[in-house]
């Protein structure tokens, strides 16, 4: 199988003539994530983040500086969605990356032309990077599953299927938005355990879920499962994903068919697709399964995937309340976690999803499920942090939270790192809670 390889684009010595890229926490020249943006007054088009600038791929596409596979990749990435780019052959993605990296590197002879393709990112608006045909959310963060399971079943937190198959549900693609879009507090039915009847009202238990998003590249035909050793080739890149969740609505509605209106009112993603190629240096072995855990069925198992199927990505959640923002306080970090807490690899998610013949398409989006650490320092939801809303947590200014209040701003960030390489980040995944709209 051909997973993206480390090449000269990952060279830690490579620096960009875009000065802000050098030492940039998210977007050094070793990252080059793709997104869709519009400059002031312009139409949406493909772009690449480099430092605090965005390189306009629609302008690049008019130049003669690209040929062959790089030209194919560029033409597929220059328009208002990246679906064609995601669904293209992986070597077109790699070739475009290599060409852009060379053009942006210190000493590039064509710098003067490339400079005319740059916009300051803070003057641009970001859009969804692709038309998302379908969105599926998994539950692969085992400590989240354990933490939440313990709230309801202290002695038996994991249901019997958890270690045999990646649990998931079909989410709603229509309400996925990019970072910055307001998150309107949903209304819905809830029923307290001791109440006689449900009420319809704004959610009082609005929560976050810290997840990675997986962008599907090439799809599969209906009826043709993706084998575990081929699954990596279908993953085009990653983003951050906040699966906003109304816990009170969820508790009342979820049986017997699972999450519905408690989840599908909004999902926020970070706008940049950090490509599988950019992530090549940050692939690590999947943590070894404890001896007492069942071996997965053969269709989910690959030594190669176990050896390289995980990612060295650290994750962070911060909050800024209205009072904190008024005073100009820095956002408060409430959790620091790691993608190593996923029980299933991303390849296993893809393979399981298609194992019944279900077809995936370029630009489909998967969520990993909430990623939490075993202890409370890195939990990816308020549900866990407050033990089901029982124990409010304190912010540095003395405010407390059990769940989100109107005006709160939540930010997710992530960073991939590995010894000997320049770390890369994902950019912001931000949402601000807006009051319910009552009819
Ligand atoms: Mn979720």
What does this structure look like?
The protein is an alpha+beta fold and 439 residues long. It is built from eleven helices and 27 strands. Strands 6, 7, 8, 13, 14, 16, 17 and 22 form an eight-stranded mixed beta sheet that branches. Strands 9, 20, 21, 25, 26 and 27 form a six-stranded mixed beta sheet that branches. The termini are far apart. 49% of the residues are buried. The model has no long low-confidence stretch (mean pLDDT 97). The structure holds manganese (II) ion. Residues 137, 209, 211, 243, 367, 369-370 line the site of manganese (II) ion.
Q: How much of the residues is beta strand, in percent? A: 15-25%
Count of extended strands: 27
Helix content range: 10-25%
Number of helices: 11
Shape: globular
Quote the average pLDDT: 97
Distance between the termini: 54 Å
């Amino acid at each position: 199988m051909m997973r993206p390889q480390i090449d000269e684009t990952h060279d830690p010595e490579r620096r960009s003539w875009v000065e802000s890229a050098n030492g940039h926490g998210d977007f050094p020249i070793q990252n080059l994530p793709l997104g869709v943006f519009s400059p002031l007054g312009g139409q949406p088009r493909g772009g690449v983040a480099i430092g605090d600038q965005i390189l306009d791929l629609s302008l690049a596409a008019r130049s003669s500086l690209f040929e062959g596979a790089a030209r194919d990749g560029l033409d597929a990435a220059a328009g208002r969605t990246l679906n064609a780019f995601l669904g293209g052959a992986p070597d077109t993605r790699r070739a475009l990356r290599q060409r852009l990296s060379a053009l942006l590197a210190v000493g590039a002879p064509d710098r003067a032309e490339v400079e005319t393709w740059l916009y300051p990112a803070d003057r641009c608006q970001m859009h969804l990077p692709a038309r998302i045909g379908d969105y599926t959310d998994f539950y692969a963060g085992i400590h989240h599953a354990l933490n939440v399971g313990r709230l309801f079943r202290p002695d038996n937190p994991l249901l019997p299927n958890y270690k045999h198959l990646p649990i998931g549900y079909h989410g709603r693609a229509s309400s996925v938005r990019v970072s910055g879009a307001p998150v309107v507090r949903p209304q819905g039915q809830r029923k307290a355990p001791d109440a006689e009847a449900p009420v319809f009202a704004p959610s009082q238990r609005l929560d976050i879920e810290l997840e990675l998003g997986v962008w599907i590249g090439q799809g599969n035909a209906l009826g043709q499962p993706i084998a575990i050793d081929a699954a990596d080739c279908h993953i085009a890149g990653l983003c951050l994903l906040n699966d906003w969740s109304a816990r009170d609505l969820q508790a009342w509605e979820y049986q017997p068919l699972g999450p519905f209106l408690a989840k599908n009112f909004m999902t926020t993603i970070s706008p940049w697709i950090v490509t599988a190629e950019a992530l090549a240096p940050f692939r690590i072995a999947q943590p070894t399964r404890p001896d007492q855990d069942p071996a997965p069925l053969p269709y989910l198992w690959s030594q190669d995937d176990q050896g390289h199927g995980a990612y060295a990505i650290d994750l962070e959640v911060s909050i800024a309340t209205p009072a904190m923002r008024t005073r100009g306080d820095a956002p408060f970090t409430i959790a620091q976690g790691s993608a190593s807490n996923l029980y299933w690899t991303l390849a296993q998610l893809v393979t399981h999803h298609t194992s019944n013949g279900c077809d995936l398409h370029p630009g489909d989006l998967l969520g990993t499920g909430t990623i939490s650490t075993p202890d409370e320092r890195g939990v990816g939801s308020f549900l866990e942090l407050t033990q089901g809303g029982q124990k409010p947590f304190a912010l540095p200014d003395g405010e407390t939270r059990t769940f989100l209040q109107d005006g709160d701003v939540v930010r997710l960030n992530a960073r991939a790192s590995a010894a000997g390489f320049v770390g890369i980040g994902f950019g912001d995944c931000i949402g601000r809670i807006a009051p319910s709209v009552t009819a």
